[in-house]
Structure formats: structure tokens, C-alpha cells
Amino acid sequence: MKQKLLDKFAEVFGSAEGAKVYFAPGRVNLIGEHTDYNGGHVFPCALTIGTYGVAKKREDKVLRFYSMNFEELGVLESSVSGLRPEPEADWTNYPKGVIWAFQEKGNMTDCGMDLLLYGNIPNGSGLSSSASVEVLTGYILRDFYGLDEISNQDLALIGQYSENKFNGVNCGIMDQFAIAMGRKDYAIFLDTADLSYTYAPVTLKDAKLVIGCTNKKRGLGDSKYNERRSECETALAELQKVLDIKSLGELTEEQFEQNKHAIKDEVRIRRARHAVYENQRTIKAVEALKHNDIEEFGRLMNDSHTSLSKDYEVTGIELDSMVEAAWKQKGVIGARMTGAGFGGCTVSLVKTEYVEDFISEVGREYEEKIGYSADFYVVDIGDGPVTL
Ligand code: GLA
Fold first, then answer.
1. Percent of the chain with pLDDT strictly greater than 90
2. 175 is catalytic
């Protein structure tokens, strides 16, 4: 893989002398969805699939980008100074956003670079290909400029900052954190209220994580993501009139039920209910996993999906059909949508011996109902970014 990437780099940019090869993973969230901007808990893990980057620092100010996933776009060029998001810059707005964020935070990342990317995360799947590119770019910049004081957690925060401020998506910290802090065979139990976290082993013994890709593309920017976020902010402001809280993540289910009357709109009550219950579910799920109660973990995954579908309304017919088909299959411990929703992927925990049947049966039912096919990936939990 490494040599192939270096050869491609030489073909595109002239020479691979002095170029280095890097990798940053994608991520899947096991439970705790739409809680990260509500001060709640999340439980994601990094994957062994992700984004490979070959990069070489330049002496001048020129940035040249090439993606093997978008070869038709050719080499996209710009300057390292005066960076701003441009629609025609396409995917390069992600690495550019990170270079810009480094500069904003006072780092002299003022040399150009040649960067070639190759990702094996299905594009638009909801497995965080954009956050993977962001963390990868930050990792490369840290290496180029010897910025050893920047930790992996900082890389996550810079990535999120670039996504929020440069690319205009008000995402939480989950994706970048899961990618920058990933650890093989562990999921990260992260409290987004204060960024405290612990690693929890995910030893599935006789089960596998199966990702189902609906092939309904979604762009976070044009989705209802930002709308959900502001609905939750309004609900929080209403609750703050009767409760002394900083986020929805501080509430137990009981406290929510006793005070929900303060929220003056039925839709917002449902949005806030999801945020509160999902956070509590995540805490319970991690506890269940600790006690090797995988069945309970699966049940909580299923409840998470129902809440995302009915209360939070971020699923849609594709995700619902896929998850409902998954629930019916033999050997399924739990299944839910994962990521932002509105298309993208599902994650299912399936007993190893049933994985093949699961894929063919869910795939068949999905295609029959939706009219086009789904893709499935059996994934492994991997480490954070590395230099290869
Ligand atoms: C996207 C965002 C994350 C998180 C999830 C929903 O992946 O980037 O910050 O909000 O949606 O859980």
C-alpha cells in the first residue's frame, strides 16, 4: 500500500523524494447519538479503515491537492495564505480548513505542501471521512513543523474548530475525538461536557460489527443537523428558566419528566427528550458492556434507534428500513443508525456465524423496499493516526 501511494504521488507531483505516508482512521459511534453538542456522553471507536495521505512540505506558498477518490478533479491548487472556503475547492476545503485553523491558533504553518489522499471509507457514509481528513491534516502539520506541544486531543479540537468555523458545520467533538484518540479494540467513553474519557474494551468474542451503508448520500451542511442543534439550544434555554443546568446532559430522565412543561413546544420536548434519554442510555450501555452483558448493550442500541427515529427524527425511510430488517435477523444483538443520520450508515452487532446470512437478507429486503442496493462492511476497531 505504502509503495503504491508513493508511486502515485510521484506520478501526480513529479517526485516522491522526501514525501511521507500517513494514515488517520474513520470512526463508528456505537451509542450516544446527537448527545455531543448537548453536553452528554458518546461511545465511538476508530476503525481500521480510514484515509491515507502522502505529503511533502514545499519551500514556497503553493498548496497542491490530489485525491485518488476524486481523480476527475485533478490537482487542485491554492495558496497557503488568505485561505477561505470556496465551493469549487470541493474536498480540499477540509485540509485547507485545518491549515487555516492552525494559523488562527497562532502556528506559523506558512509553507505550501503537496498532498495526495486515498480513503477507503465509503464516501458520504457517515463514518466521518471528513473528520478523518481533518485529523490527518493536523497530524501532518504537527509533524512538518515539529509542533510537539500539540496533543492528539488538540488535533481533535482544531479539526472541530475548522469544521465549525471554516466549513460552516456546527458539529460536536465526537468524530474528531474518536479519530485522534482511537485505540485498537477499545471504544472511547467520552463525556463531552468536560472531555473526560475512559477507554472501554470491546471484546466481542463471537460477534462482529457490521456497517450497513444505505447509499443515500447526505451532506451535513445541507442536512437538518444545524436545525436540530438549535432546537436543543432553545429547549435548554426554556428549561434553564426552571432549572440551574448548563446542558441537557446534566439531566436524569426523572428530572426531565418533572420539568419538561417548561418547554413550550411539542417538537422541542421530543428533541430534548432524545438528548436526555440517549445520554442516560449511553451511560447504561457502557455499564452493561463492563459486565459483559452484551444483550443489554444490544437492547439499548435498539432503543437508541427508536428514539432517533421517533423523537429526534433524523432517520428517514432508508435508515429505518435497514434497521427494521436487521432487527428481524437471527443472531442480531442490536442495530441502529450511526452518525448524524439523514442517510449514511447503520451499525449492527451480529453473531459471527450469522453475519453472511445477515448481509444477504438485510441487503435483499433493503433493495426490495428502497429500490437500490446497500453495501455492507464487517469492520474492526483500530488505532488513531500514525506515520507509516
Ligand atoms: C455528526 C457530528 C458529530 C455528532 C454526530 C451525531 O457525526 O459530526 O459531532 O453530533 O453527528 O451524534
1. 90
2. yes
Mean of the pLDDT values across residues 118-138?
Answer: 90
Do the strands 62-67 and 113-119 form a parallel or antiparallel pair, or are they unpaired? Answer: parallel
Atom of ligand 1 nearest to the CA of 220: 1
SS (H, E, C) 252-303: CHHHHHHHHHHCCCHHHHHHHHHHHHHHHHHHHHHHHHHCCCHHHHHHHHHH
User: What is the reported pTM?
Assistant: 0.95
Question: What are the residue boundaries of the structural domains of the chain, listed by start?
Answer: 2-202
Answer whether 34 contacts ligand 1 (Cβ < 6 A).
yes
388 near 24, Cβ under 8 Å? no
What topology does CATH give the domain 2-202? Ribosomal Protein S5; domain 2 (3.30.230)
Give per-residue pLDDT as tens, 332-357. 999 999 999 988 999 999 999 999 99
Q: What is the tens place of the pLDDT at every residue in 148-184? A: 999 999 999 999 999 999 998 889 999 999 999 999 9
Looking at 114, 175, 191, 303, which residue is catalytic? 175
Q: CB of 339 closer than 6 A to ligand 1?
A: yes
- Kindly tell me the sign of the dihedral angle through the C-alpha atoms of 351, 353, 357, 360: positive
Best of 28, 30, 31, 34 for a ligand 1 pocket test (most atoms within 8 Å of beta carbon): 34
Which residue's CA lies nearest to atom 9 of ligand 1?
A: 172
Best mutation site among 35, 36, 195 for ligand 1 pocket (most ligand atoms within 8 Å of CB): 36
Residue 362 DSSP SS3: helix
* Contact criterion met (CB below 8 Å) for 27 and 45: yes
